[in-house]
Amino acid sequence: MMKLLLNFIFILICASLMAQSRNFPQTKINELTSKQQLPQNTIITGKLQKPEINHGIFKALEFFDYINKNQKKITDKRLYKKSSDTLIIGEVPGDTVVIKGNWNHTGPIWIFNDGVLIFKNAVVNDTGDIYVLGKGKLIADSCVFNFPQKYFYERGLLALQNAKIEINNCSFNYSGMSHTLYIANNANITMRNVKNRDFTTCGMFGSPTLLIDGCNLTGEYILNDSCSATFLNADTIILWHQIPNKAEIDFSFPNGDYVTNYSINKSTSGVKGINYNVYSDKCKTVMWAIMPVNGSKVKISNSKLRLIGNWFMRGDSATLKGIFNNSHYNDYTIPLTDRQLRLINCDVQTWSIYVFDSSKILIDSCTLGEVGSQNKSEIFAVNYTCDGSGGYFWATDTSIMIANNVNVYTTIRSERNALVILANSWLPFMPPSAIHKSILVCSQNRFNFSPIAYDQSVVWNLKIDKPDTTMNQIIVPVYGSAWIKQGPGGNPMEFDSYSLSYRNINETKWTYINKKRTTMIEDEMLEEWNTAGLVPGYYLLKLTVKDNYGDTVDAYKIVVVQSSLSANKNITNQNITISPNPFSEFLTINFENQAISNNIYLLNSYGKVIRNYNGIKTDKFKISRENISNGIYFIRIENENSIVKTYKVLIY
User: Fold this and answer.
1) Predicted local confidence at residue 210, as pLDDT
2) Do 550 and 475 share a structural domain?
3) Neighbours of 622 (CB within 10 A)
4) In which domain, by residue range, is 483 found?
5) Residues with Cβ < 8 Å from 55, sequence gap 6 or more?
6) Quick one: DSSP state of residue 30?
7) Of 541, 562, 583, at which residue does a domain stop?
8) Distances from the Cα of 196 to the Cαs of 97, 142, 177, 343, 480, in angstroms?
9) Are residues 527 and 588 in the same domain?
10) What is the Cα–Cα distance from 235 to 214, expressed in whole angstroms?
11) Which pLDDT belongs to residue 640?
C-alpha cells in the first residue's frame, strides 16, 4: 500500500535516475543471483535500453525538484505539455475556473501560481491526476468525483509548496481501487464530511497540514518530517508513525476501536527525534503502525500493531529470516543489527519491508504483508510468503527484485523503470503485472491469471507445463508458454524466438528438441519430444526465449523418464493417490497394494532429495512438512527399482 508515498522522500535521487535510460544490468544480475544460489531459471544475457518514465505524478515530482533547485517559476513550460486533454489554471494572474453540473475530462489538471479551480454541485468524471502547486487553490463543495483506474494507484491528488485544498460534502470513486494523496512543503488540505468508496494512501512530507473532519473510509497516512495531521469523527484509519534515524521512542498505543484525544509529537513523554504532530479525536477503527528506519531505537509495549514497516536506507544491508505475520511477542527484539526494535506484550498483524537508495536486502523463510524496493535498491526473496495483509510485492524506480520459490496471495508488480524476476513461484489470486516502462520476467511460475503489461511496459512469460513424467521410446508433446508482450503504449523490446532442449540431470550436454520457433506460444504445445534411446532417469527440459535485442531468458523443468515396459507394469499394479494438495501440515499417500515395498522421496524444486523413506509397506503413509519451507516440491515413488510415479505438491 505504501509504495507511491515513500517515493517522495527520495525525490532528489529519483529525479536523476529518471533523467536517463540505463542498460540492462546483466553483470549485476549474474553476480547477485550467483551469490544467492538461485536456480538457472533467471539466466539473462545481452543488453537493453530502458527509456525514462515521462508522465503521471512521478513526472510532476521530478519537475518539482527541478523548480526548487533552479528557482524557476511554476509556469516553466517544461512542467507540462499543453494539449486538448490538459486543463491548466494559473498561467495568467487571477485565473479562476468554476465548474458545475456534469463535467467529463480526459487528462491531467494543473493549478498553480494564484490559480483557483472551484467545483460546485458537480458530477466529475476525470481520467487524469490533479496537481496543485505554488499558491494554487482547489475548492470542492457538494460534488461527486469519479476517477477511473485501470490499476491501483494509477490516479492521485498532489499538493505542493503553498497549495491549498478545501473539500466539503463530497464523495470519491476510484474504481474500487486504492489511490494516492501527496501533501508536501507548506501545503494545506481540509476535508469535511467526505465519503470514500476506496482506500486512500497518503504521504506528508516537509511541513504540510491536514484536517479531516468526518470520513467513512479515511485510509492510511504516513506521519513524517514536520507535518501536522488532525483526524476528527473519522472511521477506518491507519496511522503510520515514521521513526527516523537516531530517533527514540518508548511508547504504548491505546485501544484503537474508539479513540479520543490521542496525540503524539516531540513533547510526548518517551519520544525523542520526532518532529511531526498528529491528533485524533472521536475516531473509530484506528489502526496503529510504525516505520522504524535503520539507526532508530524503538520500544513498544502493551499494544496491538496493525503494521510494522521496516525501512532500509543509506546503503543498508540486512538478512531477514523467520519473521511471521500474526504473531504475539512477550518480549522480542528483532534480529537486526542496524536498529533496535523491541516489542513487549505486543501483537503484530503484519510485517512489511521497504528498501531505498542502494540498500540490499535478503528475505528468507518469512511471511510478510508487503515488500517493496525503490531507487537503486535490490531485494532477493526466497521461500517467502506475501499474504496480502499489508499491500503487495513491488519494485519501482530503477530497483531490482529477484524472487524465487515465493507464494504471493496478492499481486507482484514492476513499476517505472524497475526490473522484477519471478521464478518457480505461485500466485493463486491475482495476475502479476508491469506498469509504466518496467520489465517483468516470469519463469516457470504457477499462475491462475496470465501476467499483464500496462502502459509502455514489457512482460516475459516462460513456462514448461507438461510433461511431469513420460516414457522412453515414444514421442511426447511438451506444453507451455513462451512469449514477450508489450503494454498498449508499446515497447521497443519484442519477441524474436524460442528454443527447447534437454539433458540428463547428471550430464552437461544439451540436445535440441528445436533450435528456433518464431511464433509466440501461450498455454499450447511447444514441441514434440522424441524420447527414443533415452536411459530412464531424471532429465531437465530447458525453454529459452529470445528478444529482438538478443537477450535470452531460460526456464527449466525436471521430467522423469521411465522405461516403457517397467513403467506400464508398475502403474498397472499400483494405484496411488495423494491428498491434500496443496498441504500445510501433512501429506497422505494412499497405496492400493500393501504387499509392494515402496521407496518414497521428497525433492525440492531443483530436484534435490531432501527426505527419503524406504521399504514402505502400508495402505497409507503420512509425510510431515516439519522444518520444510513453503514452496513447490516433488514426491517420487519407486518400487522394484523402477519409478512408479512423480507428483508435484505445494506446501503453504
Assistant:
1) 98
2) yes
3) 10
4) 462-562
5) none
6) H
7) 562
8) 25, 14, 11, 34, 43
9) no
10) 8
11) 62
Q: Is residue 115 in a domain?
A: no
Give CB contacts under 8 A, 24+ apart, made by 108-115: 108/80, 110/79, 110/80, 110/86, 111/136, 111/137, 111/138, 111/163, 112/74, 112/75, 112/136, 113/74, 113/75, 114/90, 115/89, 115/90, 115/91
Residue 362: which H helix or E strand, with range? strand 360-364
Task: Record the cell numbers describing residue 283, joined without a space.
Answer: 475516531
Residue 19 CA to residue 6 CA, distance in Å, equals 19
> How many structural domains compose the chain?
2
Q: What is the CATH number of the domain that holds 471?
A: 2.60.40.730
Would residue 627 count as lying in a domain?
Answer: yes
What does each C-alpha distance from 176 to 149, 170, 198, 612 come to in angstroms?
Answer: 9, 17, 5, 49
Query: Are the beta carbons of 163 and 190 closer than 8 angstroms?
Result: no
Contacts for 77 with CB less than 8 Å, ≥ 6 apart:
none
| pTM of this structure | 0.75
Say whether both 598 and 544 belong to one domain: no
Q: Which residues touch 60 (CB under 8 Å, ≥6 apart)?
A: 79, 129, 131, 158
Please give the full DSSP string across 164-190, using - where no structure is assigned.
Answer: EEEEEEEEEE-TTS-EEEEEEET-EEE
Reported as a single tens digit per residue, the pLDDT across 93-105 is: 999 999 999 999 9
Q: 273 burial class (0-12, 13-18, 19+ CB within 10 angstroms)?
A: middle
Point out the domain boundary residue: 538, 562, 586.
562
Q: Is 608 exposed, middle or buried (0-12, 13-18, 19+ CB in 10 A)?
A: exposed
pLDDT (0 to 100) of residue 573: 53
Cβ contact 311:334 at 8 Å: no
Same domain flag for 582 and 523: no
- pLDDT tens, position by position, 571-617: 445 678 888 988 888 999 888 777 678 888 888 765 678 888 888 88
Say if CB 92 and CB 115 are below 8 A apart.
no
Burial 41-58 (b: 16+ CB within 10 A, else e): bbbbeeebebebbebbbb
Backbone angles phi, psi at 430, to 5 degrees: -135, 150
**Phi, psi torsion values for 223, nearest 5 degrees:** -90, 115
CATH at residue 639: 2.60.40.1220
Q: Are 387 and 411 in contact (CB under 8 A)?
A: no
Which residue carries 516439519 as its cell? 626
Q: Which of 296, 299, 330, 333 is nearest to 316 (CA)?
A: 296
What gap in Å lies between CA 416 and CA 395, rounded to an integer?
Answer: 9
Cell 535490490 belongs to: 378
- CA distances for 142 relative to 88, 118, 164, 173, angstroms: 23, 11, 18, 14
How much is the pLDDT for 42? 27
Cβ distance 32 to 380 under 8 Å? yes
Q: At what angle do helices 56-70 and 11-18 cross, to 10 degrees?
A: 110
Q: What is the pLDDT of residue 473?
A: 83
Identify whether the C-beta of residue 9 lies closer than 8 Å to the C-beta of residue 37. no
In this structure, is residue 284 part of a structural domain? Answer: no
Distance CA(354)–CA(249), nearest Å, equals 20
* The dihedral sign for the CA sequence 10, 12, 13, 18: positive
Identify which of 189, 192, 239 has the alpha carbon closest to the alpha carbon of residue 216. Answer: 192
